[in-house]
Amino acid sequence: MTSPHAWPRLQGIAYGGDYNPEQWPREVWREDAALMREAGVNLVSVGIFSWGLIEVAEGEFDFSWLDELLDLMHENGIAVDLGTPTASPPAWFFANHPEARVIDREGRVMGFGSRGMASHSSPAYREAIVRYADTLAARYATHPAVVLWHVHNEYGVPVGEDHSPASVAAFRLWLQDRYGTLDALNSAWGTAFWGQHYTDWEHIDSPAIAPSVVNPAQRLDFARFTDHQLRACFVLERDAIRVHADQPITTNFMANQSWTTDLWAWAREVDVVSDDHYLWAADEDAHIGLAIAADLTRSVGGGKPWILMEHSTSAVNWQPRNIAKRPGEMKRNSLTHVGRGADGILFFQWRAGRSGAEKFHSAMLPHAGRESRVFREVVALGADLQRIGELQGSVVQADVAVLWDFESFWAQDLEWRPSEDVAHAAQVRHFYEQLWRDGITVDFALPGQDLSGYRLVVAPAQYMLSTADAENLERYVAGGGTLLVSFFSGIVDENDAVHVGGFAPGLRDALGLSVEEFLPLREGARHTVDWPGQGTFTADIWQEDLVLRGAVTVASHGGGPGEGEPAVTRNTHGEGVGWYVSTRLDAAGMAALFSDVYADAGIVPASRPEGLELMTRRGDDAIYLIAVNHGDDDASFVANGTDLLTGAEIAGTATVPPGGVAVIRSTD
Amino acid sequence: MTSPHAWPRLQGIAYGGDYNPEQWPREVWREDAALMREAGVNLVSVGIFSWGLIEVAEGEFDFSWLDELLDLMHENGIAVDLGTPTASPPAWFFANHPEARVIDREGRVMGFGSRGMASHSSPAYREAIVRYADTLAARYATHPAVVLWHVHNEYGVPVGEDHSPASVAAFRLWLQDRYGTLDALNSAWGTAFWGQHYTDWEHIDSPAIAPSVVNPAQRLDFARFTDHQLRACFVLERDAIRVHADQPITTNFMANQSWTTDLWAWAREVDVVSDDHYLWAADEDAHIGLAIAADLTRSVGGGKPWILMEHSTSAVNWQPRNIAKRPGEMKRNSLTHVGRGADGILFFQWRAGRSGAEKFHSAMLPHAGRESRVFREVVALGADLQRIGELQGSVVQADVAVLWDFESFWAQDLEWRPSEDVAHAAQVRHFYEQLWRDGITVDFALPGQDLSGYRLVVAPAQYMLSTADAENLERYVAGGGTLLVSFFSGIVDENDAVHVGGFAPGLRDALGLSVEEFLPLREGARHTVDWPGQGTFTADIWQEDLVLRGAVTVASHGGGPGEGEPAVTRNTHGEGVGWYVSTRLDAAGMAALFSDVYADAGIVPASRPEGLELMTRRGDDAIYLIAVNHGDDDASFVANGTDLLTGAEIAGTATVPPGGVAVIRSTD
Amino acid sequence: MTSPHAWPRLQGIAYGGDYNPEQWPREVWREDAALMREAGVNLVSVGIFSWGLIEVAEGEFDFSWLDELLDLMHENGIAVDLGTPTASPPAWFFANHPEARVIDREGRVMGFGSRGMASHSSPAYREAIVRYADTLAARYATHPAVVLWHVHNEYGVPVGEDHSPASVAAFRLWLQDRYGTLDALNSAWGTAFWGQHYTDWEHIDSPAIAPSVVNPAQRLDFARFTDHQLRACFVLERDAIRVHADQPITTNFMANQSWTTDLWAWAREVDVVSDDHYLWAADEDAHIGLAIAADLTRSVGGGKPWILMEHSTSAVNWQPRNIAKRPGEMKRNSLTHVGRGADGILFFQWRAGRSGAEKFHSAMLPHAGRESRVFREVVALGADLQRIGELQGSVVQADVAVLWDFESFWAQDLEWRPSEDVAHAAQVRHFYEQLWRDGITVDFALPGQDLSGYRLVVAPAQYMLSTADAENLERYVAGGGTLLVSFFSGIVDENDAVHVGGFAPGLRDALGLSVEEFLPLREGARHTVDWPGQGTFTADIWQEDLVLRGAVTVASHGGGPGEGEPAVTRNTHGEGVGWYVSTRLDAAGMAALFSDVYADAGIVPASRPEGLELMTRRGDDAIYLIAVNHGDDDASFVANGTDLLTGAEIAGTATVPPGGVAVIRSTD
What we know:
Three copies of one chain form a homotrimer. Chain A has 17 helices and 28 strands. The first copy, chain A, is of the alpha/beta class and 668 residues long. Chain A has three domains: 339 residues, TIM Barrel, CATH 3.20.20.80; 202 residues, 3-Layer(aba) Sandwich (Rossmann fold), CATH 3.40.50.880; 55 residues, Sandwich (Immunoglobulin-like). Chain A has a ten-stranded mixed sheet with strand order 13-12-14-15-22-21-20-17-18-23, with helices on both faces. In chain A, strands 7-6-5-2-1-11-10-9-8 form a nine-stranded parallel sheet. In chain A, strand 17 and strand 18 form a beta hairpin. In chain A, helix 5 packs parallel to helix 8 and helix 10 packs across helix 14. The radius of gyration of chain A is 26 Å and the shape is globular. Chains A, B, C: It catalyses: Hydrolysis of terminal non-reducing beta-D-galactose residues in beta-D-galactosides. Chains A, B, C: This is Beta-galactosidase.
């Protein structure tokens, strides 16, 4: 379903943040409105956690303060993204419906007092959220401030799976719907193993704590079910709003920072894709994680512009050590999101809250107040975003796709895999990082989608790969594509069952090899990889016994259990080429690998200063270069046009100072 | 309430330990009495864990063995500290009252079989402890052996918080008493954040496990409530005893080794303060932790003499590696307690028990028996304590106060702080350690108390500071005091809410600065601090963005996010001086800092050999120097008088051998 | 009870594995039979996890597929080890009997979905297993394929202890049976400590989670009870089978890889001892752990031949990093088991399963299929085992016994011991490893058994030692034996109570010393041991204060708390010698220690190349040398005879290539 409105009624880049005025007295509201105007804020998200202050008792609504607030915002020219607070039901809800509380794998009942997350399978909860969404939308559908609806908050966080009786009952129905017969379920789950055969649907439980590891197919299906239940609740709310309202409806994703939701499916249900992203402070290259988030958000949305619904002006509060952003960093982060397709830059939150679990989370208006570095940078960023308003609607194009299938993540990260060193996300990051350093724009893609538009497709540890998806990859290569596959790919089917025929049988033709046995390495073990013509590299984590069936050995293991065997292979298949790498190469090895792969794919990475991140958006009438300098030196690159931030004309060479940014309307 | 008797009827220093004769046959009792006399024991604690052997069924008492024991002790001239065993109700109690079992945050019911800790909110438990205390006191109030009553054992250990239904119900009543209205509670807890607004007292639960972090103000109040419930049970027992008995009443604290009880409040309820202290074996400087414990115990008791109710003759049994004390160490530990105000030196326990969880805990009479190093040292210590009996009643005086507010500990150590490297206790230790090395006697103090008697007040990471307390510190400086404050001080009010006006607004005048933003460092990150005139030091964990408002930069960060900004500042305010340090300095940096701070405070640390701990007690007629040599060489210091342990006359210089002690009645 | 048949009706060495055809369609069964014949398989274990596929509803059996399978096996000349699947009751069982689910210490109910482990105290479970075993045995007692019965699977794994109400009720009955009176129980458990006195059997619970550490004697008894309940279930099944069938009955042990079962007691109940063993991948010397497993398995069986019921052809799946075996390693492992007494070499499992928790576990027929390194080596191993069939029935003899008492393990590894660095298993391994390196064949033994046949008895940290057992060791020494005892031996009696008279009083005469105090070392602390004539070594973990009472100091601590005190002592007692070592010596120190100890014991280790493992089996008519070369070079040793694997005649010197094996029928 697509809304009649694909984008909120806003000019230029949306700018603002979560606004929680219910934490503050009325005089602060007036001050906030004035400061928002000073900062160039044009959109605030309101009501995300306000259930109990609006539905003050079950079925009894008091909208007076919200009426007043929306009017205030509208008077000040600030649009509103109006939230349904269904991520946090009020205390009375749990008192009236104690059975709606979430129960975790260990049987622990999740109490009230933090975010009051409820069971998404609870009939009482579903009734309540529809009532709320309906009542809210009926009241504000025509309010002139409201330009966007914000359903719930970060579905699946902080808890996704629910083992309450309501959830177990719903799981049984979901399974009946999926499998039809118990024979089909027994077959899909492989219940003959460990004596798990089912003869009655009512005997099936959620995969809660058990004497040993629970059936992985059951756990995978429970992950699918969890995603389904969350999304079903979204759809209930969305449809209740749509009865009354025409504005676009969204919910804020968590891209690569939450794993409970299949964002490919979710993106089909929202009118506008929006995402929350927070830097991981312990990561010295956290901006690469940010780039992944932005590319993934854009990709699940099919390349359309999207909204960065939350990020932070400085430190967050929930990490072990919450590193403050340094001057210019918030701007760099924001412009990178823009460069990768965001047309809205919002923060959690407008004003730092004095109380509660997140009072040490930074805000647009920090505890230090108006006279502070952060607020000064917030004002400056608002002005910058106004200067680049013309980018709104322009798009990002990519020649390379990296596979990203949430179901494969769910399966791969279960217990009892060959090595706990092969987390899926880390493998994706490892490959993406080289592409980032080479300045290559990347889309993420599903293995089963049409990939013919890409010069290169990369599959890092794509553990789960259905036969159909493997055939799609084979066709892609045969048709002329270049495919780069890492170890531990194509191992299981959609039921987490090893493919008939061994490991990765579906990739044999494309890659020209078969995988006979995994050779995980001991903790800390490292071995060389000898690559004639490229040099000697280091690798770790994994090796494999391969049987080449047409592929050529490009590099070999210099030690370890697979000593002398192929580490990197290349295979021509049809019109294309299939590369395979059976270990985790170090950074230099990855650079060598990609340099050869690019050659096959016809990709020529531009030479650029290290630390310069260069992105391109294409509008109807112009091309925009967004440059972000993460380095400590001036960074120059070839450009012609106008720097929209400074108004400077660029002829031939643009230079961005250390930590700086540029947005150039290109005339090339 | 103060008892008519401020100290047990004993001459000199009390000496002895927990005595659990119920573990042994009668013939052992006779041997014990003889060996106690040999060791100079004059006080034993009896009955701490004897509930089930005295109240053999609910309401049915059998005192026969205890009668016999008290008579035996009295015949041998050994006084008794008679315990109520309410820390460990018997098996029949839990069988009769299963609802009185403690439930933890995760909903797990704590079973019987270890210490049978019960819910302190349970009506059945409260009825039972009053019945027991009343019956016991009625019987033994006039027994000539009994000189002290010992209620319960280590309140709050091993479990403090209780989430049983009785506790939740009591919590609601406590909250109604504290807040009066739900509006006041909603405001104090900041329930507008994350949608936690309450409309009914019955909707409030204990802060048990929830989907994410629970409201910190709720957790802080639950810590207060827990302390209150424990203390209310103490008061019930104390008052039941007082109806019958005149002897002083105590309960054994855990000073800096348990965090559940606000000892400032507890000290007001006991007649005599007593404390348990155990070395932390992994700490190579565990004697500094001991000094903190002793100073804190003395401080909460208002400087009056106190009893070391438990320590160990050698190893304990509950640490990962239980290091045995080396020859002389028990004596050094004991004399340090005396030097810091203890007038009683007792041990857990008299005779090593053969069975149970603590059989590897050392004792005065170890498993090896009478012919053992430990027992020989026990006998020698008994003789030494008799030699210094005249110290009884003398007092310790301090020029320096270090702030210690249990409520601030409770708040600071909750989840989601800016950095998990800033545990409150470690910061206090960091500052105390320099004072210890400089030989400065320290009191601990509440931030709101009269501080005018101190030359220097130190506030290490005093995270919670009410406006009134901050004003008290400001007045202290304005009146001529020297105040040294570390980073992360004065951040929140008594509800764990950030102060209006940002971080540490109440300290701005005294310190001449404001704190704009925290800059926690990454794990392991270290940077220099440049201190003109003092040198270059290293620091870690934390930096800050400061705005100076009158303060002068004394030292600066040489790197890190706050590079070039102030690391140490000094501000004259009124008649006094306020120092601020925005990072964690290494040991050399702390020495430099304090050397400057002492100069402002008019404190001149005496030059002494490294490792020599020198303490002073002042009696009505004499001054006593207690010297403990922790070093490997002879340590000499200026003294005149008589060494009470050896009888030697000291003229000009006293010398203590490595590992030795001296107690000098000074004629200076 | 001993079966009329001490060994299954098989010729030569048994070879095969678990076979789970219920996971596969019928056409695969035919292929399997053919490939088994190719591999020389003569025994497969069937039905281990098939409960729900045979008893399809409570009391309703369908044996059709099993009939077909057994016939197929028989037609192909493959014998069957027929299992009872009682380690994994079906879903309907738990639906019908929810109270039969296991509950863990924390009160968590173990759900269905992995291995469906049930409460072994549940009446419903016991009824069900007897019904199943009876029905199965009645049907197949005379089937010609069936040569062995395989009851249950790995008793005690993955869960042993059960805190369900049925278990608690059974525990009370077991205690009444053990102790007779509550007085006896109170005395044995030392309930006077911490106020745990019991006045009613019904007040006693399982040692579930409690506020602090639970009574260790109670935990020790619960471990005994757990073992008893598991074994009682085995006996129920065994006796039900025996009513119908004459074949030997076994259950697969876990030797040194599970700690829930007292294998000395279990071995008395089975007709044939069998064991499962898996390499611990993180251990670079995992083959030494394998040797311990094999020696322990043989020892508990009284030296009789035994069956290796499960090991792996390559990697397992349940370790953090599952290291694949390298070419030849499976053969070396298998021959080591043979060399240490195994007359059967079986694997988990025949064909790799596609689904479930263990799909990445290797198999005889791997996912890669017939054309794979693993299957080729499986075929070769089958042929090798046929070549050495004459070894069947020959035995292993040892001059050295290492004490191994499961009850002492249970007691020693409870909480609150003097140092967590003294795990019992690690100490046993430390001593065994030196014996292994010296090529000494080792039996494991109980401290109370007749030891007079051994030249040397080693007691590594034999924490629990009853007075009677200590007297047995004293008699052994007095009679001429050599005894080597490590620190932390002889500390407690069978109730985990410290012996009257201090530590190790029962060993004073044999060792000529007493232990006054433990001196555990801090983490990472290392000190020298000075051994005149042998050199200087390093040691860690532990020292002790010893009082010599006749023993001579052989080596001394060069530092640490016991500096200058004895580290190693020697004592002549009667006709024998008692050695004591009070620290953990490094490898060189252990070599020095044993070289002196061997001299006293009259043991002369043969000089052999490093890495060569040489084992001897003695038949009625021949002696067999089994040589396994773990090294990287050719290894030669003195031998005369015929290599059964190659047919080569050996005259004087045999040489085994790196990674190779030899089995020589010796003519010496």
